[in-house]
Design goal:
This protein is an alpha/beta fold. The chain has one domain: Rossmann fold (3-Layer(aba) Sandwich), CATH 3.40.50.12710. The protein is about 40% helix and about 25% strand. Strands 2, 3, 4, 5, 10, 14, 15 and 16 form an eight-stranded mixed sheet that branches. The longest helix is centred in the N-terminal third of the chain and has 17 residues, at about 5-25. Bound molecules: S-adenosylmethionine. S-adenosylmethionine binds next to helix 4.
Length: about 375
């Protein structure tokens, strides 16, 4: 029996039902896009408070300011290594997926306090397509007014590109993914889509119109693997995340591109334990696989394919510097920072560090991909 959705979910459900009535079964990626980003009722448009103790899930940012402080310490070292940008412009930190602006606040506060020289010279850019989220961020970052600029998309970014660091935390796991299923009898992939079933939504299958080779790129699925995939085996591909990474790589003139997120290597999506894919919902700190329930009322998230991101960045001319666990990445930063000063004794800071790095908390499930572009000879010459 379908449950009665809460009012905002009912409005969003009606919008989805209308679109299905007009255009037919809705591919999952479109359902996910509306559920998360429909401008009035999408999950990430509705409220700032969906992350953290009183929200639906924790992120490293919501653990406390230490995460932003450690990232800032690392950024500071990287900025010190960069040549000055052409025409004497500022070095830039570009954050995407800033949500309520908390990470931006923690990073900027660290620079202001620990490296006022760099703080004075840098520009903080927030890449944020949503006017509503821009307003939340501006409110959080009032103390840094004048230091922060907003851009709705890559096309608005200043030419000749970013000299500095482009970064995100848990951005790409929130991008709509395509959900594919394996038809063992036909030895073919199909696309999972959503249809109406009375007042509820139900799954249906659509023929896959794209070449699966392109969708799984750079992984070539070995025939020995497809020969034993069970009927209905389900997985996701994230062309939107890969396209975003490619654009970010293209926008980076010189410096680093990094993201922290939970994810897998391309082949790990095909282990027997993942036969239903990695998509999950989160509401009030409970995870479920009921992806079609209450659109707009719960978070929807899928694991990031780090192999695909790495390959997209390298194809755009970036060098991979690290693909490691959050635990190793943050521990290395903390070790350098705390050797230079003194290790913290405040139990609240130690608790944050443990939550961010312990394998049973966020330390092992989260990975960090760092890629870089060195300045071109011409760029170096211009900078001098
Ligand atoms: C899981 S939340 C993470 C928020 C924050 N970075 C943190 O770690 O707490 C994902 C955020 O990415 C935002 N987002 C999704 N697509 C985006 C895009 N194309 N550009 C910028 N932000 C985006 C969502 O609106 C949401 O605020």
């Amino acid at each position: 029996m379908p449950t009665d959705p809460a009012p905002p979910a009912r409005e969003l459900a009606a919008i989805i039902r209308d679109e299905i009535a007009r255009t037919g079964a809705m591919p999952w990626a479109r359902f996910m896009e509306l559920a998360l980003y429909q401008p009035e009722h999408g999950y990430y448009e509705r409220a700032t408070q969906n992350i953290g103790r009183r929200g639906d899930f924790f992120t490293s940012v919501s653990v406390g300011p230490l995460f932003g402080e450690l990232l800032a310490a690392q950024f500071s070292e990287w900025l010190d290594e960069l040549p000055p940008p052409p025409a004497g412009g500022p070095l830039q930190l570009v954050e995407a997926g800033a949500h309520n602006g908390q990470l931006a606040h923690d990073v900027l506060a660290w620079f202001q306090c620990q490296r006022p020289d760099q703080f004075a010279a840098l520009e903080y850019c927030v890449l944020e397509p949503s006017p509503r989220r821009q307003a939340w961020q501006a409110e959080m970052l009032r103390a840094f007014a004048g230091k922060v600029r907003w851009f709705r998309g890559w096309e608005e970014m200043p030419v000749p590109g970013i000299s500095g660091i482009i970064f995100s935390n848990e951005l790409l796991d929130a991008f709509p993914v395509r959900r594919l299923g394996w038809d063992a009898a036909a030895a073919k992939w199909f696309e999972w889509a959503v249809r109406c079933d009375g007042d509820a939504f139900a799954w249906t299958r659509l023929p896959l119109t794209d070449n699966p080779r392109d969708l799984f790129h750079p992984l070539t699925l070995p025939p020995e693997l497809t020969a034993i995939l069970p009927d209905g085996f389900t997985t996701e591909v994230g062309p939107a995340a890969v396209a975003w990474w490619r654009q970010a790589a293209g926008a980076l003139r010189c410096g680093k591109l990094l993201t922290l997120d939970y994810g897998l290597s391309a082949l790990d999506f095909f282990t027997p334990g993942r036969a239903h894919g990695t998509l999950r919902t989160y509401a009030q700190h409970r995870s479920s696989s009921d992806l079609l329930a209450a659109p707009g009322q719960q978070d929807l998230t899928a694991h990031v394919n780090f192999t695909a991101l790495q390959s997209a960045g390298e194809s755009a001319g970036l060098r991979t510097e690290a693909l490691t666990t959050q635990s190793r990445f943050l521990t290395a930063i903390a070790t350098r920072a705390w050797n230079a000063t003194a290790p913290p004794t405040d139990p609240a800071v130690l608790r944050q560090f443990q939550t961010l790095t312990h394998p049973d908390h966020l330390g092992r499930s989260f990975s960090v991909l760092v890629q870089s572009r060195r300045p071109s000879r011409a760029g170096e010459d211009m900078a001098r």
